[in-house]
Amino acid sequence: MPRSQRAHPSPWVLGFTAEDHRYERHVRTLPEPAVPPERISRPLGILLHPDEDGWTAPELSESFLSRLAAPTRSVRLAGCGHFPVEEPGFQQLLDEVAVELASLESAA
Asked: What are the tens digits of pLDDT across the range 29-56?
């Protein structure tokens, strides 16, 4: 389904994100995590992020992922909004999880 035909966030949400300059003010006020990401060296960190997420900018998630000391990989789910149920991204999500589970089973 074309993005223009999908449900959009309410005007309140659009106003909220515009007012907060795409989350910058919130990021500055969040407390530091109990364990800094730079000290997390395992397991593998995998980010499966919708590429059309209008609520959480992929760059925000990728910024946190880049701070992890653990090996990481990032996958943008094609054609998905904030809650990734659209295809082909939903199948991509399932495939990525299946691959990771299979690798854990083979390592055990």
From this structure: 667 778 899 999 988 899 999 999 999 9
> Could you say which DSSP state residue 76 is in?
E
The strand pairing partners of 74, in sequence order, are 47
CB–CB of 74/101 below 8 Å? no
- Which residue intervals of the chain are DSSP H helices? 11-19, 24-29, 58-67, 89-107
pTM over 0.70: no
Chain centre to alpha carbon of residue 80:
11
Provide the sign of the torsion angle of the four alpha carbons 56, 61, 63, 67, taken in this order.
Answer: positive
Joined tokens for residue 16: 């909220």
